[in-house]
Amino acid sequence: MTATKNDIQRLIECCICCDYLTDVRETPCCHQLFCYSCIQSWLKKTTKNCPRCRSTTLTEQGLLKNIVVQRFVDNLQFDCPNALQGCSLKIARSDLVKHKRLCLYSPEKLANKQRLKLDESRSLLLRFKEGKTFITDKVLFDLAKLFYDEHDCNNARECLQMIKDQDNSQEIIILQAKVERDTNHYDKALELYSKAYTLVKSNSQRIELLSAKGHLLSKKGQYEQAKDAFSQALDLLPTDDDSQMKAEILNALGLIAKKCSDVSKKQQPELEPYDQAISSYDEALRIVDNNSKLWSDIISNLADVHRKKGNYNEARELYLKSLKQAESLYGPNHPSIADIMNNLGILYKKEGKYAEALDYLKQALKFSKHYYGQQHPTIGIYLTNVGDIYRKQGDFKTAEATYIEALTCLEQAYGENHIEVAEVLNSMGLVLKKRADYDGAEKHYKRAIEIVYDTFGHDQEHYKLGIYYNNLADLDRKRNKFDDALQLYQRALTSIAKTLGPQHSEAAEILHNIGQVQHQLGNYKEAIDYINRALMIIKREFDDKHYKYGMYLNSLGLAYAMINDYKIAYIHLKQALQILLNTLGSDHIEVCDVYSNLGDICMKFVVEIDQQKQKHQSEQQAKLDEAKAYYLDAQRIVQATFGNEHTKAIQFSSLLFIVNNYSSLSKI
Fold this sequence. Notes:
By secondary structure, this protein is mainly alpha-helical. It has helices spanning 5-12, 36-43, 67-74, 96-102, 107-129, 137-149, 153-162, 170-182, 186-199, 203-219, 223-236, 244-259, 261-267, 273-287, 293-309, 312-330, 335-350, 354-372, 377-392, 396-414, 419-434, 438-456, 463-478, 482-499, 505-520, 524-541, 547-562, 566-584, 589-610, 617-642, 647-660, 662-666, and strands at 24-26, 33-35, 64-65, 77-79, 90-92.
């Protein structure tokens, strides 16, 4: 029997950190292999059981050293971590640390070369400013390009400003636009791109400038203008054009269609937004080179659309197709592989399969750390996704620690006011909200909002404002400050309506939350109206089988229960259960809530039967049995997700006690 590549991979990886084994230890109970530091940390937990077989007899003293596997792992050949910078050597794992220190392509050595080059250029610029030397406009432009290529945008800008005839050179204006773009001065960059457009002569240059404008407008959340720019670029191409440029533009149009439903509706009213995205991606795939990175990117983007639509199996197939292609292009451990692993992790998170999601995300981190080290911004983004998994699992301490690590990484890479930093702050706010630290959550949300304003301007709406204001409103709802919450929800709705459109699923999320406030205020009919509006949007954007449709039906059922219309409530909850079982599976935590609510409704029926003059014992017992089945399923999910000691698990034990002893308890 021949071992597969996956079998070997599983053998040499620790199933706690998902990285290659270090200082290997084997468990005597199930012979699973772990890094010594990982299993050591695990055994310090209160459970102190084996991570693989759950044996309670495992102790640190009982762990066995596995020298054979350690020797095998140490002799594995890896690409140099600096392969992306040009090193072509393969190194044994045991020699990686030494090689990284000595490698000519190491970040430190390249940084020294870069520093010397920059120092020479800065010295030349300083002598020119002091009048000690003469530099032509061409030399100033070449210096500006050098500074820009080495990410020194301040000196690049200064050189460009010193050029005398800068207003009539498209080359200079385009470089100025890139400098302003890369320093987050988006409006200035757009102005310069427009200016350059009036000077260029060829269609190919116009297409490049329109594409650059489109990407920038998309980044600003101005999707309608972005789509116009890309559409103009597409119109300038010959009708029979099958170039990579056309594929890139179609890919960009697909991203906009995926993001923004209302803009897409205006352009192609006969198609739903996600169908428009799929149409753009399919056309791009028809012409793109199958062996290119762009092909893999488009396949991943197409998978994203199916993930958004809740078509998880289709999304998984596409991600795996993209993964296979990327592995054939780059080998098994490239950063491009890590990106697809990250997407697969997000997909499994959506399905509530948190263990699988964590495995994929840790694999993504492993590959990226090998090439980029610990402090690359990609690491920060992946860590944020890992933190999301821990948050979903209810492990809020680990989630917060992971977010802090991600925040440190992104702040070091981008600075404290970058838009990616805002995303982590928002995620940290969600954790603090779960821990009832509403003041801490508010502080993080407000800082995230301020970053969006600083990045895109206080007079510019951006869809992220809608998301962050929505989360801020949730805090006031939790604090029972309902008037403040409603004001913030309206503010969030305005941002979403102006950027993504009033019929976008993000708008549905806010309408649903307003319905929740009305529910808490006792305005149940208003709550029903808002939830129905949210349901209509989800049905239009996705269909009535999407998981969000099921979640909102759950809320609708609860609202009907509050006006004592238990039959309608029961119908909506049963419908919600079927949708969530079909989309998320029988073990997802969202399904737990519906099981719990159905159990409660069944108990309402039991009490109603009790109050009738002619009691129907068999009907009452049937409803008690049904309630018991729902509570047992809810308890099973909570115990599997959070453990037997979780508050909700204990709560379901109490409810089951009431169901099992209803006859005797009702006589008290």
